[in-house]
Amino acid sequence: MIGSIVSFGLLFTVPNNNAVAQIPHETHASATEKTSEFQYVQQPLWVKGTVTASILGLIGLEIWWFLLSKPKAKTAQFSDGIQEVTIIVDGGYEPSRVIVNVGQLVRLNFLRHDKSSCLEQVIFPDFHIAQQLNLNQITPIEFTPQKPGQYTFACGMNMFRGVVEVR
Ligand SMILES: [Cu+2]
Question: Which residues form the EfeO-type cupredoxin-like domain (predicted)?
Fold first, then answer.
């Protein structure tokens, strides 16, 4: 949602900058005789800087978008009666989709690298779990899903989300 608003904003600012950039070029030819070179150089530099910033913003947005929209599913590893997956917490959850079997103990090892307080807590509403995650430590969360389905988990503010798919 925020991403689309930002991208719309950038889409509108880039053509505007291009329109601004054209003005000095057009006026330059007729105005070379009377105006100094100083004014000509300074205007395009400012415009170029803005255009470059917009382009860099777009590239950054694209990388961000690509990373977030990419579905990352991982099937839990089963050993000694426990199905286990390590989830890296860094600007979201990696993997953000975990596939497990019904009726078997699940252990999700949350390894938090993200310093922001946003991701310090992980919540599994369906399993009544709200767990603090310590920085650069593994926090195991265990539960046994009794029914197949999609069980979401999220940060304390419900901004970052992941799914446990029970089959
Ligand atoms: Cu949050």
Answer: 62-164
In eight-state DSSP terms, residue 160 is: S
Q: 150: domain range?
A: 73-166
Q: How confident is the model at residue 19 (pLDDT cuts 50, 70, 90)?
A: very low
pLDDT tens profile 34-83: 555 666 667 778 888 777 788 677 767 776 666 666 567 999 999 999 99
How far does the centroid of ligand 1 lie from the alpha carbon of residue 157, in Å?
A: 4
Domain total of the chain: 2
Residues 32 and 47 in one domain: yes
| 46 shares a domain with 108 | no
Q: Are 57 and 91 in a shared domain? A: no
pTM of the predicted model, to two decimals? 0.60
Do residues 36 and 93 both lie within one domain? no
How much distance in Å is there from the Cα of 133 to the middle of ligand 1?
Answer: 12
For 104, other C-beta atoms within 10 Å of its C-beta total: 14
